[in-house]
Amino acid sequence: MTKRPTKFVFVTGGVLSGVGKGITAASIGNILKSRGVSVNIQKCDPYLNVDAGTLNPAEHGECFVTKDGAETDLDLGHYERFLDMELTHSSSLMSGRILQKVIADERAGKYLGKTVQFIPHVTSAIQNEILSTAEGFDVHIVEIGGTVGDYEGLSFIEAIRELALRLGPQRCIFVHVVYLPYLGASQEIKTKPAQNAVRELRGLGIVPDILVARSEDKADSHVIDKLSLFSGVEKEAIVLLPNASTIYEVPLTLEAKGIDDVIVSKLDLKARKSDMKEWRQVVARAHNGHKKTVKIGIVAKYLNNQDTYMSVFEALRAASWHEEIKAQLVWIDAERLDNEKQVAVALKGVDGIVVPGGFGIRGLEGKIRAAQYSLKNKLPYLGLCLGLQMAVVAAARNAGLKTASSKELDPKAKDLIITTMNNQVGKENTGGTMRLGDYDCKLSPGSLARKLYARDMIVERHRHRYECNNDYRDKYESWGIRASGVSPDNHLVEIIEGTDHPFFIASQFHPEFKSRPNHPHPMFSGFIKSL
Fold first, then answer.
1. Could you give the CA distance from residue 41 to residue 51 in angstroms, rounded to a whole number?
2. Would the pTM of this model clear 0.90, i.e. be above it?
3. Which of 286, 294, 342, 385 has a beta carbon 3.0–4.6 Å from 531's, enabling a disulfide?
């Protein structure tokens, strides 16, 4: 039997950035998958970066890492959580990578002396990446980053316009996500910005098939009539999406409005009736009553943007919902933890702390002091990547080795408990060169880690340049910790845990990347249960 050609759903955004394209794209994939359709998904970002590895997390949000080591936009985290699948580097495409390839091809003479231009060369390269990533799937969803009208995004918009012409109307549909602002003076939701956003898209040669209208509050149904009249989109293909109490409600809202039926019909897909039972359970857990409330301190330094720790927060929420516990997440500024007294004041009242990843020396001493406090006071602790490194330094200092430090913090320290990985020396400021992606880890019998995972070998995702210095590993027991997870060759420490502590565990990898709302990660579940 010949497999039917892949169909495409292109998701664009208008009015403003951050309107919810990523959640919309992920939600569409979620519903289609529940209908038995095989789905893949891809983010096209207009940034001139080659990947997201060198972007400032305080400005752009977290850098999500795929199993094959790609450093990507945080929307790929949403994709993986909503679709419960592991993506690869091909699902993240930035302008820098496209331009790099086109220029390399030009230098190699592949254009046979032709003048290299955005059209057709850059747009063709974008189309080739999209088509290659889509191979083997029934539907491929492509989110175009940024806002329609942005100069840097025009090549992507033109590329998908051309691709739709190549493939034909029954293989491509366009979903446009717009914003409906509320005007307090007249107490009404205004549709004019959305109308203009559709007009902008049409002016670039794309007519939307579906309109998703985001708003802070619920809009009256007559808004659909007005949007349909001025945008030319059928009423049944317009859905109003007010803010939800949890982002995981969005697939259920789209399904309730019949948007999946519109997509299935327009693309002539063979699909069964949707089965959203498991997803309804996820949302029900988020809304259900809780046995208790716990206060979790996030000892961090990127405090002005919650997106910086998106996967960590979602992993904590998933684990707490599963255990019928309400998790109250509290920011604790690592830079303000200058001494033991300040640490005690800052951590007063919290039931446990999480020390997430990060780079640079800012806030490191505060994170070390927080880990020291946790060890001394038996406060539950979960360390992630940098959180492991600071925990090992904290244990050494608690045991009397006051000169213990990390090479990232103090390269000239007498006792570098944490040092640069051998293959990372000299690459400290280079993008895409860290230890990235999936690596195996062997767990010690009888350890907390072994109990949490209920298996001997695990595979987890990494993003780090520093490691535990093996010259000090024989001192761990005297410091009150143990290496309970190591690489198969026993060279790299992957997990450490306290030897006399109710719950003190930290990983060199990032377990948050593999957490799912319907399948909480065991390390996060264990942490929540310990509170």
1. 17
2. yes
3. 294
